[in-house]
Amino acid sequence: MKVLLTGGTGFVGPAVVRALADKGHDLKLLVRDSTRSRDLPGRPVVGEMTNNASLRSAVEDIDAVVHLVAIRQGREEQFKRVMEQGTRDLVAAAKDAGVRRFILMSALGTSEATKDLVPYYHAKWEMEQAVKGSGLEHVIFRPSFVFGRDGGILPTFRKLAKLTPMTPVIGSGEQRIQPIWIDDVGAYFAAAVTSAEAVANRTFELGGPDAVSWNEFWQRLRAALGIRRRPIAHIPIRLMRINALLTERLPGDIPLTRDLLTMLEHGDNVVSNDDAVRTFQLPLIPLDEQLRRAI
After folding, report:
1. What is the CATH number of the domain that holds 195?
2. Contact partners, residue 90, CB within 8 Å, separation at least 6
3. Among residues 118, 138, 241, 262, which is most buried (max CB within 10 A)?
């Protein structure tokens, strides 16, 4: 099958690209800079989510689109331009080109109730609505925290646990998360490209086998690193917001932002059902093994 993938050079993207290539799909990768994809399977096509002409060119002769592009921080206008309008343009181009299936990466926690909480959730919600309203056969995935060795937020947690004199835990640490390993996310996307009609036009929440509190997560991470006696300090969110206000002004991809704190404060980040597990029946990496692979 001929597949166009956006966001292939991001954190999750390479795992999805390799999972699709392992299934034998003919891949095109929409990239802004072709040199960034030279270590990945697939043929790079230069374009941007903000360039409608490049999107229409990219979807020509394509059977399925896998759409991963997202930004984590920036001005509200950037979320609207890159994620919201970019997705509308890509969906319209895919429909006009006769694409058979559209697979979207959303985020756990996205809902009508949270869409006005932060620009990220609003953009993800609008992306979902664009896909659902397109008339295209589609699959939407909402992953929890995605863990991997060399990207995402886990390396930051690892550094904090190893280098700080005490382990900082945001708030009470009682809210729960359900991390999923990056290769398991890739496997879900690869399975969705060719799965039968049972997955069509459905939204799946993705999490790993273990849902734990933040307190338990830090205990498990410290155990994996061999850290036993270093104290844990619960940091009030209001103090973390002050820190985030400063770090947001630094260049680069900042792991701690005020929007992230708002999302963490809102509630648990765990799946509400086991539809993905029952439908796809993929083996998933337990949390302790995720942490062992990441140290």
Report:
1. 3.40.50.720
2. 6, 49, 55, 59, 65, 67
3. 138
For residue 40, how many other CB atoms are within 10 A of its CB? Answer: 18
**Could you report the per-residue pLDDT of 182-234, keeping only the tens digit for each?**
999 999 999 999 988 778 999 999 999 999 999 999 999 999 999 888 888 89
pLDDT tens digits along 10-48: 999 999 999 999 999 999 999 998 888 888 999 999 999
The kind and range of the H/E element at 178 are none
Q: Is residue 164 part of a domain?
A: yes
**Structural domain boundaries, residue 165:** 155-174+211-266
Q: What is the 3-state secondary structure (H, E, C) of 6-71?
A: ECCCCCCHHHHHHHHHHCCCEEEEEECCHHHHCCCCCEEEECCCCCHHHHHHHCCCCCEEEECCCC
Q: Are 29 and 46 in the same domain?
A: yes
Task: Say if 290 falls within a structural domain.
Answer: no
Phi and psi at 105, nearest 5°, equal -95, 110
- Dihedral of CA atoms 79, 74, 14, 220 in degrees, nearest 10, equals -120
Closest CA to 15 of 73, 68, 64: 68
Q: Which two tokens stand for residue 14?
A: 């390479």
Any domain includes 46: yes
> Which residue type does 95 have?
K
Q: Are residues 103 and 134 in the same domain?
A: yes
- Domain assignment present for 293: no
Cβ–Cβ < 8 Å for 185, 152:
no
